[in-house]
Design goal:
Pfam families: 2_5_RNA_ligase2 (PF13563). InterPro entries: Cyclic_Pdiesterase. This protein has one domain (about 10-235): Cyclic Phosphodiesterase, Chain: A, CATH 3.90.1140.10. A hairpin with a 6-residue loop joins strand 8 (about 190-200) and strand 9 (about 205-210). Helix 4 (about 80-95) runs antiparallel to helix 5 (about 125-140). The protein has a 4-stranded antiparallel sheet with strand order 2-1-8-9. The protein is built from 7 helices and 9 strands, in the order αβααβαβββαβαβββα. It is α+β, with helices and mostly antiparallel strands. The relative contact order is 0.22. The model has no long low-confidence stretch (mean pLDDT about 90).
Amino acid sequence: MEASEPRKQDVDLAVILESLPVTGLEVMICLLPPSEHWEQWVRLKEPFFKKGLRKKGREPFPHITLSQTRINARSEPTALFGVIDAIKEDVENKKESEFMLQFSLVQNFDVGKNGVVYVTSEEESTHERALSLHKIAESATEPLCNGKAAKSDDFTLHIGLGSVPKSKLTQIMEEYKGIVANLESTSFTCQHIYLLVRGPTGPWKVASAIPLEGCNLSVPSIPVGTSTCLAAVVGGTDASLAG
């Protein structure tokens, strides 16, 4: 019997994993705005981005985290193949379809001496859809993290903008409410669940884009192989694995 051809998603993921260190890998399951929305959000995140992260090769980028974890020492990077398959299966079984996301509400939550400013949606139905995807991501990544992933009760649909001292929080909140109210693009159709990977240094990289039901895009807005840097996403400076 002839061996079956490897799936493109597996080949793409293998290529990306080969470019990263074997240990210290992190995984994020998330939702991403389309590329044409990135510049406005990066501009809002830039003033609060930590220099230490920049030194490690990180870049600010807009994202809605569904689940994030390190791959523990007992899990091989190839376990990510199973994560992708588990998400695909759940999306199909639960008939998770594409939906509209609109980020118009500026809020904050406390983290020690700072407040984290973020944007979220005012639509309750949108929160319910995102929570459902969070549960799918949480379940799929649980084998990687020894049960240390965030629990569903902790999930908040949001795009984080930055951590600021509480002494400046009121001022920043008012300023950002005005800015967000005047943004041209605060809504988009969520069509994919993205799986990102990164090593101890460098930016996140798109390792998989799992379509939701109803998505008819042959290539996702942020193609597989793209680094989460504004220049790469908007300017196409990465050699993506699309096609």
